[in-house]
Amino acid sequence: MTEQVNPGERLDVVAVAPHPDDLEIICGGTLAKLVKQGYRVGIIDLTTGEPTPRGPVEVRAQEAEAARVRLGVQVRLNLQLPNRELMDCPANRYVLATALRRYRPNILIGAVGRTPAASPDHNQGHLLIEASRFYSQLTKWNDRFAHTEPYRVPHLVYAPFPFDAEQRHFHSTFVIDISDTFEQKLEAVACYHSQFDGERLAKVKHFIMGYNIYTGSRCGFAYGEAFALPHPIGASDLHTLVMGGKGSPAPVQLPGQSHLPMN
Ligand SMILES: [Zn+2]
Predict the structure, then answer these.
(1) Could you report the per-residue pLDDT of 152-190, keeping only the tens digit for each?
(2) For residue 79, how far is its CA from the centre of ligand 1 (angstroms)?
(3) Which runs of E-coded beta strand occur in 48-154?
(4) DSSP element (H, E) containing 246
(5) CATH superfamily for domain 13-234
(6) How far is the CA of 17 from the centre of ligand 1 (A)?
(7) What is the pLDDT of residues 79-94, one digit of tens each?
(8) Kind and range of the H or E run holding 19
(9) Fewer Cβ atoms within 10 A, N terminus or C terminus of the chain?
(10) How far, in Å, is the centroid of ligand 1 from the Cα of 161?
(11) Are 125 and 83 within 8 A, CB to CB?
């Protein structure tokens, strides 16, 4: 439905979620920012998101493409796995792993979490993403992956659904400052007219704004998006790691002292 796959054309980052609009809401600001920073980014939607009471499928596809353009993301691929019935199973792992073997990203961002008030596809997508990342490296099974070569995705980053049912204790979490792409994110979400008409759009914008302000403020940013890793953060430079992209979120700033990095 968007830019065609050019096999062998690598992406720096691939982000995966069950439905078009999931990634925009969870981490659209970060995806737009990665593009601004010069990285090649792809979005993989596992399903079309249809059927819903709101469709139809053609409109959903046009909305997803409009949102891709708004974020500036180079590639968007829809794997056409079954919405509402999405399961982590070997057949679906082959499909997603094949896409990973084609795009060979450095980083795989996966939407994760269990959302009892929303679609069960989210939880299954979480499992499917982790399993497919493992499957993509498997040897001697190329025929199951459209004759692509094995590829191991070096890094997996969790993008938790903000309405996750669990209080998860990840090994490490971090927040990306999206203050300069937050408006782009809201505009991308607004592309989904069929899902978010007037009142619903106002509601979802209100929620996103509150959540991204809260998340960002914990690290001293106007707006932020939260991520996690399945392992502790490794670093060779404690100073750079701790200082991050901006100053301290310390609530008290003494006169004459700046919290900004000194370099
Ligand atoms: Zn969803």
Answers:
(1) 999 999 999 999 999 999 999 999 999 999 999 999 999
(2) 15
(3) 75-81, 107-112
(4) none
(5) LmbE-like (3.40.50.10320)
(6) 7
(7) 999 999 999 999 999 9
(8) none
(9) C
(10) 9
(11) no
